[in-house]
Structures are given as structure tokens and as C-alpha cells.
Amino acid sequence: MQLPDYFNTIETTGSAEFKDRGSRFIAVAAPVKTIADCKQKLADIKKEYPKASHYCFAYRLGLDNNQFRVSDDGEPSGSAGRPILGQMDSRGVTDILIVIVRYFGGTLLGVPGLINAYKSAAAMVLQVTPLVRRPVLVHYHLQFDYTKMNEIMTAVKQFDCEVLKQELQLFCVMDIAIPRYRLNETLMKLNDIRDLSIEAIK
User: Fold this and answer.
1) Which of 93, 110, 133 is the last residue of a domain?
2) Are residue 129 and residue 45 in the same domain, yes or no?
3) Coil/strand/helix, residue 53
4) How far is it, in rounded angstroms, from Cα 71 to Cα 171?
């Protein structure tokens, strides 16, 4: 599968509210990196809205489309989590969690009404939370002699790479993240540096 050069995500938490026949649906969108982040954020939201009837959510992590989860949290199957995820996917966002907190208003909405409510609340929160476009980063491990440091740092800065970690002694190791759209030119430049060992980190 060809990975994209960029992906969309969010950097800040946003919220929006949708109402239908007395029920309130409060949508909270939060940036997340790991499943542990998602669990922590969900726990925080439950504390913030302790008396709600349901806490339905969806999250998507990473770029391979395999890391996601949906929860209907007691609502009829398929009426909450899937519509939330569908809105995320229609906007092409990842590394995001959307939790929709429902306060029941006394009137049953039926499955079509619920699907509409959860979909609408998710769409609203994605409209009010700014999306950011991020480059996809590819990680590489470098080993080199300290005398090559300046050349390497020049290349790292020139191609907008990030230094993830480094150990600088007489013999140095460094892990860097290279933007995918600049990968070929970065590797060409680094390969021109003598006695530099480069390997991709899987």
C-alpha cells in the first residue's frame, strides 16, 4: 500500500453540541497518539460529564488504516461509533479520538435518529476544531564519527528532518525522522557523507 506524503490531524481539543428532542449530544475531539492516550482521555471526559447516559466514541491512529476502534456504549449496535468514525474518515483525519456524551432527554430517537445525531455531532466538532496537515515521517538510524557532525546537521536542517534522539561521543548515533516527500533527496545528500552508516528503522 502506497503511504501518503501528508496526513490530516488535530492539535487542540474541540467540542460541539447537537440537540434532538430533548437529548443532548456533546462531541469532544482530542488529539491522541496511542491507545493509552485514548483511554486516558475517555476517562477524563467521563469525569467531566459524570451524569451522562452514554459515552460513545471512535478513534483512529496511525496511517495504515488498521488501528481504530468504535464503541456504541449501550446504544443500539452500529448507531453511534460507526457514524462517528465515518465522519473522521470523510475528513481524512487520523491520530484523533471523538467521544460523544449523550444526555437522554426522555424521547426515544430510534436507530435512524441516533445515527443522524451521532453523525451530526461528529461532523460539527470536526468543523470547529482546526485540522492541521502534517508530513508523514520516515525514521532512520545514523552512525558516524564525531567529525561528520556538522555535515549531518546541515543536511538535517536543510530537509526539515527531526532529530529524535542522539548520543554524541567520539562515535555518534542519531535517530532522525525524514519527511516522506523529501526522502530521496535527503538520502542522496546523506549518502554523499563518507563513513556514515544509515539504516531505516522499521
Assistant:
1) 133
2) yes
3) coil
4) 50
Residues 90 and 170 in one domain: no
Among 35, 45, 135, 118, residue whose Cα is nearest residue 84: 118
Q: Which residues contact 180 (CB under 8 A, 6 or more apart)?
A: 3, 4, 5, 135, 136, 137, 138
The number of beta carbons lying within 10 Å of the beta carbon of residue 109 is: 20
The answer to whether the Cα torsion of 136, 40, 49, 119 is positive or negative is: positive
Answer yes or no: do 143 and 160 share one domain: yes
Distance CA 199, CA 140 (A): 6
Residues 72 and 24 in one domain: yes
Tell me, yes or no, whether 1 lies in a domain.
no
Q: Which three cell numbers stand for residue 143?
A: 552512525
- Span 91-114, pLDDT tens digits: 999 999 999 999 999 999 999 999
Same domain for 166 and 83? no
Same domain, 127 and 189: no
**pLDDT, tens only, 176-198:** 999 999 999 999 999 999 999 99
Distance CA 137, CA 9 (A): 14
What predicted TM-score, i.e. pTM, was given to this entire model? 0.85
**Is residue 112 helix, strand or coil?**
helix
**Domain containing 26: what range?**
6-133
